[in-house]
Amino acid sequence: MEQSHLLDPVQIGKWNLPTRIVMAPMTRSFADDKTGVVGLDVVEYYRKRAADGIGLIITEGINPIPRAKGTFGVPGIYTEDQIKAWKKVTDAVHQEGGTIVAQLWHVGRLTHHELTGGFPPQAPSRIKAEGLVHRLHKPYEMPEEMSQPDIQEVIEQHAQAARNAMVAGFDGVEIHGAHGYLIDQFNSDVTNKRKDQYGGNQAQRLTFMKELLSAVIKEVGVESTIIRFSELKDDLPEYKWSEPEDVIKTFIVAFREVGLKILHPSTNHFAEIIANGMTLHQLVRKYWDGVIIGVGNLDVNLASQAIARGTINLAAFGRPLLANPDFVQRIRQNNPLTPYDAKQHLGALV
């Protein structure tokens, strides 16, 4: 395994990371479903990865409000009990010398009133998603089209969640702007048919995302804010950007306008060519000289090569870290990795 670049320490803003390895955000659904509070099993789960030498841990998606919830067992960060529980996680990670950021996740239209405390889904436009709600296995419901006061409320709720994350001891936040969830629903012409300042052409549709990012940056600082974005949509697996390079250029302009430093472009296949002979991350690098987190079914060799070429600065791994709590040490010692087994690893916090 080509490991050298992955194991290099690096400073990203104010984060001194022992390696360039990132724990990718992965929905685990191990919080108490009624309270959204994480338990000691979650504390130990993240502590192990920090002790192993993971450079940066990005948590599973955390709901900023109950209405953001899209499946069972998702943790929140809007009550005192939730904040106190996350403080145990961040304390454990910091005691092991780790760095951890909270991913804030609002699913928008991809939910059901049985998950949101009786509220209908929220969305930029009144367009119903096709398919079944994750694990609830009931059809998605028709969402409410968000009014401008609704939009401002959701922005403030994310700012409050970011404040709560700082109280809970997190080192920063990642905003989930990908995969067909609320922010991405505003960004896409498939789900955003608005006629006000939050709709229109590609650049105008990014207005909600920019305002939300600006509000979060005010709370945690620009060096501690990450955005995850993607063409991927959980409810539209065949969806593709019609002009990928133009779309990416428009995103990059928006990210520069709010002052972002760290991008997390998301794809299922890191090496997939999407336009003009380039991958997603290569296209982003073409227009972005800040920090890029690579992700997408990476292996150790591919990740190390991408870092060496300057395509990415950090490499995020998901399933390999579920199967190998000692992932970093195995790489360091050139030992084989345990293969991921959904039956064994999906339903347990190893």
UniProtKB/TrEMBL annotation:
Gene3D superfamilies: Aldolase class I (3.20.20.70). GO terms for molecular function: FMN binding; oxidoreductase activity. It holds the Pfam family Oxidored_FMN. SUPFAM superfamilies: FMN-linked oxidoreductases. It comes from the Bacteria. Residues 6-336 form the NADH:flavin oxidoreductase/NADH oxidase N-terminal domain. This is N-ethylmaleimide reductase. It comes from Hazenella coriacea. The lineage of its organism: Bacteria, Bacillati, Bacillota, Bacilli, Bacillales.
